[in-house]
Amino acid sequence: MIEASGLCKAFAGRAAVRGLSFSVRPGEVAGFLGPNGAGKSTTMKMLTGFLAADAGTARLCGLDVTRQPVAARRLLGYLPEGAPCYGEMRVHDFLDFIARIRGYRGAELGNRIGRVLDLLELHEVREQRIDTLSKGFNRRVGLAQAVLHDPHVLILDEPTDGLDPNQKHQVRELIRRLAPGRTIIVSTHILEEVGAICSRVLLIAGGELRADATPHQLQQRSRYWQAVTLRSSVTQLDEQLLAAVPGVQAVEAAAGGALTLVPEPGCMLLPAVNALVQQQGWALDELTVEPGRLDEVFRRLTRGESS
Ligand SMILES: Nc1ncnc2c1ncn2[C@@H]1O[C@H](COP(=O)(O)OP(=O)(O)OP(=O)(O)O)[C@@H](O)[C@H]1O
């Protein structure tokens, strides 16, 4: 369980985080979503106890990160932004160092390192210096140190930032595998990531919580939720007839000569559009219903907030 209550932080008198409160339960992967400068990293640093809050409290599994820092950090795995590791160390030596700091010795130490080398598929680079690794491997080393002690809580700051599509996929798969039984927060400004790994979205802008919802609920807030797109290569679609379908708010041109019918909030257009298509005898190449557009919801809720 992660609980933030009224967290505030200002730098040189400028507020970066303004009274954030939320909780994340075991088994949930919460996506911290927000534009650049929204306050995601600052919040994560306060949740992990690496930065003191000006006001408010952060608790991990009921432990206050400021008042019980050692006990709280035992339960926590943290991947800071950019996954900083000691570049001059070899992968195995670095993990050995982290394991010793975590208090492991003897067979348990070897087992822990072996397990994360397996989990993160790091065997082929175990003797390589960290500063010579590719970004993908570097991120996996960062994740390995974060999960070495099998923590209940994982806080991962932009774990896929700067990775190529294959590496992104691998890291997302790993987060999915780690999720059962753990409480995880992942920060990102990549919208596709939210749908791919998060069961819940905490949308942050200007240091405030703008939305706390499932990805599906956020999509439902899109003006394109249940929008209907039609395309025909043989028939000239009559825009006026389409605009007159009950519940149509707007008709917009879409890619490839298609038309998108934007619904009035809460209206299901498909049955009426279908009936019109049948009545007019239009031959269609495409008739699709949209699940909503996260990018549009994101823009609307965070308008003008990038810094
Ligand atoms: N140490 C610091 N000193 C001064 N200002 C800071 C410091 N750390 C963060 N800030 C400011 O606080 C605000 C929030 O920054 P933060 O890094 O938390 O945002 P973010 O959402 O993580 O952004 P990004 O997606 O770009 O990483 C920004 O305006 C940033 O410039």
SSE order, one letter for each helix or strand: EEEHEEHEHHHEHEHEEHEHEEHEH
Proportion of residues in β-strands = 25-35%
Which topology of the largest domain does CATH recognise?
Rossmann fold
Task: Give the CATH superfamily of the largest domain.
Answer: P-loop containing nucleotide triphosphate hydrolases
Write up this protein:
It is a single chain. With about 300 residues, the protein is α/β, with parallel strands linked by helices. The chain folds into 2 domains: about 1-220, P-loop containing nucleotide triphosphate hydrolases (Rossmann fold), CATH 3.40.50.300; about 225-290, Alpha-Beta Plaits (2-Layer Sandwich), CATH 3.30.70. Helix content is about 35%, strand content about 30%. The chain contains 11 helices and 14 strands. The chain has helices spanning about 40-50, 70-75, 90-100, 105-120, 135-145, 165-180, 190-195, 215-220, 240-245, 270-280, 295-300; strands spanning about 1-10, 15-25, 30-35, 55-60, 65, 75-80, 155, 185-190, 200-205, 210-215, 225-230, 250-255, 260-265, 285-290. The strands form 3 sheets. Strands 6-7-8-3-9-10 form a 6-stranded mixed sheet, with helices on both faces. A hairpin with a 2-residue loop joins strand 9 and strand 10. Helix 3 packs across helix 4 (about 105-120). The chain is elongated. The model has no long low-confidence stretch (mean pLDDT about 95).
Key features of this structure:
single chain, 307 residues, alpha/beta, Rossmann fold, Alpha-Beta Plaits, 2 domains, 6-stranded mixed beta sheet, 4-stranded antiparallel beta sheet, 11 helices, binds adenosine-5'-triphosphate, ATP-binding, nucleotide-binding, ABC_transporter-like_ATP-bd, AAA+_ATPase, ATP binding
